[in-house]
Automatic annotation (TrEMBL), chain A:
Assembly and binders: The glycine cleavage system is composed of four proteins: P, T, L and H. In this organism, the P 'protein' is a heterodimer of two subunits.
Positions of the Glycine cleavage system P-protein N-terminal domain: 3-433
Keyword Cytoplasm among record annotations: no
Catalytic activity: N(6)-[(R)-lipoyl]-L-lysyl-[glycine-cleavage complex H protein] + glycine + H(+) = N(6)-[(R)-S(8)-aminomethyldihydrolipoyl]-L-lysyl-[glycine-cleavage complex H protein] + CO2
Recorded coiled-coil stretches: none
Protein name per Swiss-Prot or TrEMBL: Probable glycine dehydrogenase (decarboxylating) subunit 1
Main enzyme class: oxidoreductase
Keywords: Oxidoreductase
GO biological process: glycine decarboxylation via glycine cleavage system; nucleoside metabolic process
TrEMBL record, chain B:
The protein's name: glycine dehydrogenase (aminomethyl-transferring)
A biological process term (GO) from this entry: glycine decarboxylation via glycine cleavage system
GO cellular component: cytosol; glycine cleavage complex
Enzyme class, UniProt record, top EC level: oxidoreductase
Domain Glycine dehydrogenase C-terminal, residue spans: 347-444
Keyword Transferase: yes
Lineage of the organism: Bacteria, Pseudomonadati, Thermodesulfobacteriota, Desulfovibrionia, Desulfovibrionales
């Protein structure tokens, strides 16, 4: 029987030591009325058989398509060293580092991760990660509510709609008011957001680049928020943060990100990585694990989980959040990814992605009837207006092996002709050329 | 050991050879960051050595016995990693099925999800499952949100959730975060007492969150009576499935009358803990709660095709951006297929056998507050040793010196100097015996030379760390 090592003799010895006649006696407290009505699970298979089945299932997924899909989740190149190092059993099969002396590897790695992401986002503190970018945003909102004891949350419509739906779900049973400020042709409405601020505002939530790919400077908005006593929250795209003005430079109080693009495969939606950073002033509101540097009783440097008094295993219903795990292995992947690419590598990955996206935009908008939806600066993703419904174009091109992007009409009424197109450093000039020609053909 | 930032040498290149055009050609300079990021400049070998050395300063199940109560640190077979790493899964973009006609391009992934949901329904006796929650505590929050949606839909006014004192700390936290007032019930003889429960039950109770076996490792044998009491006030019963490893094939929570359950796929069905995550916390519900499950739902059409359905008007909405931690779900699916019916039952039986064996062998050396047949874990107490000054924490550290990860200590909170041990089904008898012998020798040393135990650990990269200083000085990054 797989993975249970005991021989029949050993089982007998153990039962004798316990003083019972059979294994069944160990379950005597489960009365007849509590016994299962059925347990109709197929009989076990060999490792070879299971893998053959999984390979067959994997083969039913189309991964040979050339894809321009992004929408917050990007196919960046992952150096081979990321898998090799993070799969090491000492990292991979370890637990949450509650015994710090036996977990210095995990702890120091988290400390280095905290250092790397705070530098990337220009912030002061980070936790050791939460589930994903969407839950990070929700946790940021809750930090603001605890800090300000206010109930109004201003949300930019330029924030990823998937995250906006999540925020609505999470707050539906709470006494909070979400106020959404509409986008203006895909541009974030800075004036509208500023005008919505009042003395009851707990937080203002924006994204950079926004869902349509538009890049902004939120410095003035954040200053206005601060003046009103509200918490400025920004959701950033970490790869582009290698180039863009940082949340810290803009004066954000909390900056979050989906960490998937830093070394995590797309993997049909997870596991991903919620990056959370904040100013020192907000640290005690931050949920999740935090690692601190200290010394041992001989003065040697070491690392521990710290500020644990905020956590559920100590504070129970008074904890800052119910988060008990983290995405430690995902955070480790992000750290190794950033280290393997290095200072220069991450910048180059970002630059190439931006360069390819601009080439792609140029080629697509040269097609009659295709125009940019947003007018301002963009990074590696951009939105175009098509002369026809984007869903139709996507269906036609997908049949031919090209996934041209995300249909904005999926979440935005009135933008049925809008197509969101993403490039990364993996997108080749040749692929862009073929894509443009195919789109031209479909629209003709 | 130096941090990777300390070892950085300006100008040393990592593994990215291609150069793109400068960003200034595309983005106005006032939107660009000033100065460097501050990431390390290191060669690939520098990076490989650094992280290899870091890993060597860690205990993992592959190298060390990890008898962590409440955490189910069993051995996870390696083939599930191969399954989850298949490019047919890892390269699949999650918004693909949201495109018109593209659902047909991820039929394999949707089939995995559908099959896993059906298997989890059969294992737990529940009517329907969602795979979306990304961790156990996330499942709890989802479960409490489902309770709220159910009561709101019925027009019930409910403000309270009951949580026994033997529950996981996440239970009260989840209830509070979802907007409820938490009411605690004290255990009697280690389990929930129906009379004590009845005393706090009223029409304002939305539900109760139970862990069974509870955090003392004891089976809650009064479940049928508890279910009856909650039904009387239209309160829902939530099962924290973190301890499912103790009851697979022996009890199905759906059959007993639970309305909502979350499972920790990573504990019961094998995903390595990765230093604390990622996990996966699917939630199962009874039939009356199905309309409230998060969207999307994976459905099987009559022609055998799989389809993501978003059309559930009573749904609580999105708790995750997509379909949960799909990579973890894959590993659980592969594991269940491998073990099958008999294998799952056998895992449970041997987890319980190992825990009782250890409890029995240790009972002469440590106080065991509820010393009767336990499930897959049990709680000992170092209260006796503490009289000489050796506390549970000291015993934990002394175990580290002997190459074992320490059990969970000071949890559950209701036992003083608690040491919570969960051996799991995958450790062989030699390991169990050696660990027991190590604990006994520490108990003996505690009686004769307490200072020696208090000085542990002495064989690891660092000795006892100053946690107070860490919280006060708050050195949280290399810069702060």
């Amino acid at each position: 029987m797989p993975y249970v090592p005991h021989t029949e003799d050993e089982v007998r010895e153990m039962l004798a030591a316990i003083g019972v006649a059979s294994i069944g006696d160990l379950f005597a407290e489960i009365s007849a009325e509590m016994r299962p009505a059925s347990f109709d699970i197929p009989e076990g298979l060999s490792e070879m058989e299971v893998l053959a089945r999984l390979e067959a299932l994997a083969g039913k997924n189309a991964i040979d398509r050339t894809s321009f899909l992004g929408a917050g989740f990007y196919d960046h190149y992952i150096p081979a060293a990321v898998d090799a190092l993070t799969m090491r059993g000492e990292f991979y099969t370890a637990y949450t580092p509650y015994q710090p002396e036996a977990s210095q590897g995990t702890l120091q790695a988290i400390f280095e991760y905290q250092t790397a992401v705070t530098r990337l986002l220009g912030m002061e503190c980070a936790n050791a990660s939460v589930y994903d970018g969407g839950t990070a945003l929700y946790e940021a909102l809750m930090m603001a509510v605890r800090k300000t004891r206010r109930r109004k949350i201003i949300v930019s419509e330029g924030l990823n709609p998937i995250y906006r739906v999540m925020l609505g779900s999470y707050t539906s049973n709470l006494d909070l008011e979400l106020v959404t400020v509409p986008h203006l042709d895909g541009q974030t409405d800075l004036a509208g957001l500023t005008a919505a601020l009042d003395d009851d505002t707990a937080a203002v939530l924006v994204q950079n680049p926004n869902f349509f790919g538009a890049i902004n400077d939120f410095t003035d908005l954040f200053a206005a928020a601060r003046a009103r006593g509200a918490v400025a929250v920004i959701s950033a795209y970490p790869v582009l943060q290698a180039l863009l003005k940082t949340p810290g430079e803009m004066g954000a109080a909390v900056a979050v990100a989906e960490g998937q693009s830093l070394g995590l495969p797309l993997s049909f939606g997870g596991p991903y990585l919620g990056i959370m950073t904040c100013t020192k002033e907000m640290i005690r509101q931050m949920p999740g694990r935090i690692v601190g540097r200290t010394v041992d009783d001989e003065g040697r440097t070491g690392y521990v989980l710290t500020l644990q008094a905020r956590e559920q295993h100590i504070r129970r219903q008074k904890a800052t959040s119910n988060i008990c795990s983290n995405q430690s292995l995902c955070a480790l992947r992000a750290l190794v990814h950033m280290c393997a690419l290095g200072e220069l590598g991450l910048k180059r990955a970002a630059r190439l992605s931006v360069e390819r996206a601009h080439l792609c935009a140029e080629r697509l908008t040269a097609i009659p009837g295709v125009s940019m939806l947003t007018k301002g600066p963009f990074g590696n993703e951009f939105a175009v207006n098509l002369p026809v419904n984007a869903f139709t174009v996507i269906a036609r091109l997908t049949e031919r092996g090209f996934v041209p992007g995300f249909p904005l009409g999926r979440y935005y009424e009135g933008l049925e002709n809008g197509l969101l197109v993403a490039c990364t450093e993996k997108t080749s000039e040749e692929q862009i050329g073929i894509f443009a020609e195919m789109l031209r053909g479909v629209l003709r | 050991m130096k941090t990777i930032f300390d070892t950085s040498v300006a100008g040393r290149e990592g593994c990215w050879p291609c150069e793109g055009k400068s960003e200034e050609a595309f983005i106005p300079s006032d939107l660009l960051r000033r100065g460097d990021i501050g990431l390390p400049s290191a060669s690939e070998l520098d990076v490989v050595r650094h992280f290899t050395r870091l890993s060597q300063r860690n205990f993992g199940v592959d190298g060390n016995f990890y008898p962590l109560g409440s955490c189910t640190m069993k051995y996870n077979p390696k083939f599930t990693e191969v399954a989850a790493a298949l490019p047919g899964f890892t390269r699949l973009h999650p918004v693909l099925p949201q495109l018109q006609g593209a659902g047909g391009q991820c039929q394999g992934a949707l089939e995995v999800m559908h099959e896993t949901e059906r298997l989890l329904c059969e294992i737990t006796g529940m009517h329907a499952f969602t795979l979306h929650p990304m961790a156990g505590a996330h499942g709890e929050l989802t479960g409490v949100m489902l309770m709220a949606a159910y009561h709101k839909d019925k027009g019930n006014r409910k403000t309270k959730i009951i949580v026994p004192d033997s529950a996981h700390g996440t239970n009260p936290a989840s209830a509070a975060i979802a907007g409820y007032t938490v009411v605690s019930v004290e255990s009697v003889d280690g389990i929930v007492d129906p009379a004590a429960l009845a005393a706090v039950l009223d029409d304002e109770v939305a539900g109760m969150m139970m862990t069974c076996p509870n955090t003392l490792g004891l089976f809650e044998k009064n479940l049928p009576e508890i279910v009856r009491l909650l039904r009387e006030v239209d309160a829902l019963l939530y099962y924290d499935g973190a301890n499912l490893n103790a009851v697979m094939g022996k009890m199905r929570v759906g059959d007993v009358g639970f309305d909502i359950v979350h499972l920790n796929l990573h504990k019961t069905f094998a995903t390595p803990h990765g230093g604390g995550g990622p996990g996966s916390g699917p939630v199962g519900v009874c039939e009356k709660l199905e309309p409230f499950l998060p969207i999307s739902r994976v459905v099987k059409l009559e022609d055998g095709q799989f389809f993501l359905d978003y059309d559930y008007p009573k749904s609580i909405g999105y708790v995750a951006p997509f379909y949960g931690n799909f990579g973890v779900v894959l590993k659980a699916y592969a594991y269940i297929l491998r073990l099958g019916r008999a294998g799952l039952i056998r895992a449970t039986e041997n987890a319980v056998l190992a825990a009782n064996y250890m409890r029995k062998r240790l009972e002469k050396h440590f106080e065991i507050p509820f010393n009767r047949i336990c499930m897959h874990e049990f709680v000992a107490s170092a209260a006796e040793q503490a009289k000489t000054g050796v506390r549970a924490l000291d015993i934990a550290k002394a175990l580290l010196d002997k190459g074992y990860h320490a059990p969970t200590v000071y949890f559950p909170l209701i036992v003083p100097e608690s040491i919570m041990i969960e051996p799991t089904e995958t450790e062989n008898k030699e390991t169990l015996d050696q660990f027991i012998d190590a604990l006994i020798s520490i108990a003996e040393l505690a009686a004769t030379d307490p200072a020696a135990v208090q000085a542990a650990p002495r064989t690891l990269p660092v000795s006892r760390l100053d946690e107070t200083r860490a919280a006060r000085a708050m050195e949280l990054t290399d810069d702060l």
